[in-house]
Amino acid sequence: MSPLVEFKNQASIVVFGASGDLAKKKTYPALFGLFCHGELPATVKIIGFARSKMTEEEYKKRISEHFKISENDTQGQEFKTKFLELCSYISAPYDSDEGYVELEKQIDDFDAHHSHDKTQRLFYLALPPSAFITVAKQLKKNVHPREKGHAKLIVEKPFGHDLKSARELQASLAPLWSEDELYRIDHYLGKEMVKNLLVMRFGNEILGAAWNKNHIRSIQITFKEPFGTEGRGGYFDDIGMIRDVIQNHLLQVLTLLTMERPVSNDPEAVRDEKVKVLKAFDTDISLDDDVLLGQYTRSADGTKPAYLDDETVKAGSKCVTYAAIGMQIHNERWEGVPIVLRAGKALDEGKVEIRIQFKQVAKGLFTDVNRNELVMRIQPNEAVYMKLNNKTPGLSLATTTSELDLTYANRYSKDFWIPEAYESLIRDCLLGNHANFVRDDELEISWKLFTPLLEKIEAADGPTPFLYPYGSRGPLEGPEFMKKHGYVKSESNYQWPLTRPSEEKSKI
């Protein structure tokens, strides 16, 4: 397959934590996907680095477990064989020079066999934050390019636990790696529908004209998972839903949704506007008025466990597995528009979507039509649809709610490649495109926004979350909370889509 872009240099890609779940399930499948579509440099070497003792054969078997190919896919199997030929493995501690000296030797040997003027070294830290600084120091000391070429360091979230720890992490990384070399990856910025936000907003005059407080009544961004912590409660107990999803993923989506038009498509111009709108967010989030917290209990039929049934969870934990947070932006475009970010585990379905509800039309001609809504479904099954009022066909003068529907699966050929989030972001990194990565000042402001709230929630006398059954739509207080923050549920029994019953229905 011919590449869509031309990579002008060879690359050595090193995956730290190569034996871990993140590397196995996300990083290597993404690299393989890029390889299959001709989106890696033609001259590339991939090296896994971890403490686990494995043979090359064991390593290659492990990293290929989640490649999306079947045994009968002849072409896919051929790509797999060729890809694995590019891969090698180093087993060594993260805190001693030995493994890094071997890594430098392998990369130097690879470079020596090619005549490119520039070499690129991409280091992907699929590691817990506790190992970031150790590995970053060793890489700078032993493997950073000395004469030619350049290096890039991808750091996975979480970027700290609060404002203090985020600052400490940044203060440790900054002397070693420049901001230009650092790529803080939030995989939601690589999702197709999230990357489409800038085009949707600024490439369509019909939307741009109505994208303000004069026409929009409320905004909500929803993240729903149909499963609980499932044995990971001990890990999740120290994080909670706000840190896990809202402070990073959903806030990133919201900044793209609400920022002003960048002066150009330069990555820094985009990130400048994200920072500007973040500075306009109201930092005074009231626990009583702006926050709804929940924790799941056993399912109604008793087949699914409560969060506290997990043996790894602390007894009596008040960890939040559901959170809805009302927010305000104080600027000319958004003043007075209520915004809700909500996320939960063990809910009735799995989806992530943006829902923008417009103001009610003037009364007189119409008295009972629903508000227009623009919905962008990020996952699953990407879609954009606009809920509009329409005359019921036939002799009736009654109105009904229908939709303008752009469902990707219906609009685009099945052969149309939509890259996974990690595929898209690794490609961006190889091309030096920072637009979809988190900048240091952006990270600072986001933690300033949420740290005071987290401190109130996690205080000894902090609030007790409302309980909701596993598999439900969340706390019973949810609809009233949404109503208080500007959202009006349609009075009709509208369901989307009406004519494709096999598709998943939208539950407002």
Automatic annotation (TrEMBL):
Record keyword Oxidoreductase present: yes
Source species, domain of life: Eukaryota
Reactions mediated catalytically: D-glucose 6-phosphate + NADP(+) = 6-phospho-D-glucono-1,5-lactone + NADPH + H(+)
EC number annotated for this UniProt entry: 1.1.1.49
Record GO biological process: glucose metabolic process; pentose-phosphate shunt, oxidative branch; response to hydrogen peroxide
Gene Ontology CC terms, in alphabetical order: cytosol
UniProt pathway annotation: Carbohydrate degradation; pentose phosphate pathway; D-ribulose 5-phosphate from D-glucose 6-phosphate (oxidative stage): step 1/3
InterPro entries: G6P_DH, G6P_DH_AS, G6P_DH_C, G6P_DH_NAD-bd, NAD(P)-bd_dom_sf
A Pfam family of this chain: G6PD_N
Molecular function terms from GO: glucose-6-phosphate dehydrogenase activity; NADP binding
The Glucose-6-phosphate dehydrogenase NAD-binding domain, residue ranges: 14-196
Domain Glucose-6-phosphate dehydrogenase C-terminal, chain residue ranges per copy: 198-487
Family, per entry: Belongs to the glucose-6-phosphate dehydrogenase family.
Function per UniProt: Catalyzes the rate-limiting step of the oxidative pentose-phosphate pathway, which represents a route for the dissimilation of carbohydrates besides glycolysis.
Record protein name field: Glucose-6-phosphate 1-dehydrogenase
Source species of the chain: Babjeviella inositovora NRRL Y-12698
